[in-house]
Amino acid sequence: MKAEFWLQRWQQNQIGFHQREVNTNLQEFWGSMELPRGSLVFVPMCGKSRDLLWLREQDFSVLGVEISQIAVQSFHAENRLYPKIAPRGGFECWDSDRLRILRGDVFALKAEDVTNVAGVYDRASLIALPPNMRADYTGHLLAILPTTAKILLVTLEYLQEEMQGPPFSVREEEVRGLYGDRYEIKRLSDKDVLNANPRFRDQGLTHLRGKVYYLRYRRQLTPPNRT
Ligand SMILES: C[S@@+](CC[C@H](N)C(=O)[O-])C[C@H]1O[C@@H](n2cnc3c(N)ncnc32)[C@H](O)[C@@H]1O
């Protein structure tokens, strides 16, 4: 899914992924991250999600990245936010109180943009990407994120042959393949979510599972003392 695809989706208002309400997984599982209040949460490919506001209400600072100008503008207009807007590196930076949205390409983020990130919330980001982009995406995140950052990852699993993505089915084996070398991965939830997603059932899905994972960087193994 190239940027052009998403820009067009926003232009045509084809944003079925957008949730009017705060994501229930976020509300249920964010506490498992045990992040100190006040710390910085990174939300890649954030759209105009209300989850950004919920995180801020929980006393976190929030950093979102989103490529679509329409999404970023709508987010601020709909939530009556009046940000300062300024260029920052290759991004346009929209700054409100404890909430920064960088408009631009997540793949252009640098380590210096995410230096203080303590937690990452990925809902409909990894699963928005086709198979051939996912390793680049996670590889990029792993390359720039501080090793102290924990990740809350929300995925969907279904029979890929029953529906074209996005959202794509990203199976647990793949999550473990993408992150498992460097992160401990704990599955927090695995639910049948077909009935809660009638638009996917209408497209022919017979099974749909929603999974939530908590990822934490593996401690470096201390090399044995050589004598
Ligand atoms: C499926 S939507 C999910 C949005 C949000 N996470 C949510 O839960 O509503 C994926 C979003 O990623 C954005 N996007 C796609 N490619 C991107 C990229 N390379 N850099 C930044 N944002 C991107 C799209 O514009 C879209 O808003």
Note the main attributes of this structure.
227 residues, nine-stranded mixed β-sheet, globular, 7 helices, alpha/beta, 9 strands, binds S-adenosylmethionine
**Can you count the helices?**
7
Fraction in beta strands: 25-35%
Percentage of residues assigned to helices: 25-40%
Radius of gyration: 18 Å
Shape: globular
Largest sheet: 9 strands, mixed
Total number of β-strand segments?
9
Runs in which pLDDT lies below 50 for 5 or more consecutive residues are: none
Mean pLDDT: 95
SSE layout:
Elements: H1 3-11, H2 24-29, E1 40-44, H3 51-57, E2 61-66, H4 69-78, E3 84-88, E4 91-96, E5 99-103, E6 117-123, H5 131-144, E7 150-157, H6 172-179, E8 183-192, H7 198-202, E9 209-217
Parallel strand pairs: 1-2, 1-6, 2-5, 6-7
Antiparallel strand pairs: 3-4, 4-5, 7-9, 8-9
The site of S-adenosylmethionine (SAM) has 22 residues, from helix 1 and strand 2.
Written account of the structure:
The longest helix has 14 residues, at about 130-145. The radius of gyration is 18 Å and the shape is globular. It is of the alpha/beta class and about 230 residues long. The chain contains seven helices and nine strands, in the order H-H-E-H-E-H-E-E-E-E-H-E-H-E-H-E. Bound molecules: S-adenosylmethionine. S-adenosylmethionine (SAM) binds near residues 17, 123, 128 and 166.
Brief overview:
The protein has helices at about 5-10, 25-30, 50-55, 70-80, 130-145, 170-180, 200, and strands spanning about 40-45, 60-65, 85-90, 90-95, 100-105, 115-125, 150-155, 185-190, 210-215. It is of the alpha/beta class and about 230 residues long. A hairpin with a 2-residue loop joins β3 (about 85-90) and β4.
